Predict the 3D structure of the following.
Amino acid sequence: MSEFDLFRQFVESWVKTETPSSDPTANLQFLSDLAAQLRRYGWQVESVPGQKTGGSLLAKLTGTVPEKPQLLVGHCDTVWPMGTLAEIPLTWDKERAFGPGIFDMKAGLAMGVMAMLALAERQSFLSTWFFINSDEEIGSPESTEPLKHIAKQCSRAFVLEPAWGEAGALKTERRGAAVLRLQVQGRSAHAGLNPQDGRNAILDLADWLLKCPAYLPKENTFSVGTIRGGSAANVVPEQAHAQVDIRMLNSADLSTFIKAIQAIPTLVADVTRQVEVLFEKPPLTATQQNQALFQQAVNVASNLGQRLQHVKVGGASDGNTTNQYIPTLDGMGAIGGNAHARGEYINVPATLQRLHLLKALLRLS
């Protein structure tokens, strides 16, 4: 079977299996089927169960080089709800393939498996592990700790998140990310009979949210994602909360920001405020080790007739986690565009060229 045919076989099978992050059962079944497939290749596969997610798996290809293994990282969950495929089917043309989750990141999974299959055909190679989770699109709440444990045992990581832009730039720096829950507790009262006895939590939360962004350092971002509060129009709301997304250049920025917003005076008297960190990922920084690994990739790409670029991006990934422990190259996955949007696609020839680079990098010891 040709490289293209095998790639298309994997991509078609996996894109047509819908795996929204919100459906643990679908992700569990996907990973179970994938584990069975990888075991047929002779790889050792360990399942990491989840409590509220579909869990993760770790596939191990044991090599002959007596050094720490290298690590591939990917995820099977997508942002698309179940049933999207009926509305946006998988399609192929001469150079592109379109479909929900194909770019982020079912094609990246195909690349990882194909690169390991090629590596297994060599007489001498470095042991290679492939960690695949089902909760990356929601911040990896359950898989982060297992990934930390795995990364500590490895020598370097290649994260199969999509590359950046048509040039396929690698993501050598990422902002850190956090989700905060801001809550206000007020006091209920009848909105018509005695509103003066109430303490409106929604009004106070709204004022708080408007003032928060001023306390973030430049180049960091603050985005309100959800707001909940109140019980009825004729009741002064006693409770309100919001979830906000924070992207920061430095981990210290988050703790400084939280202290600052906790000190903002309340708009409404006699209410209480609370800040809870729901999850946090540290930044992926341009360490000396990362820069050295990127330079290796540049040299290998040049030998393949490819020109490799790099970029700093705002979105976080599991590369933010591996970067705490080992040199990490992120964006080693598919080349395409429109992630998380209608028209999501991969450039097939460019993605196969990126696969050649991944294979060559895995051969380095």
Notes: The mean pLDDT is 96.
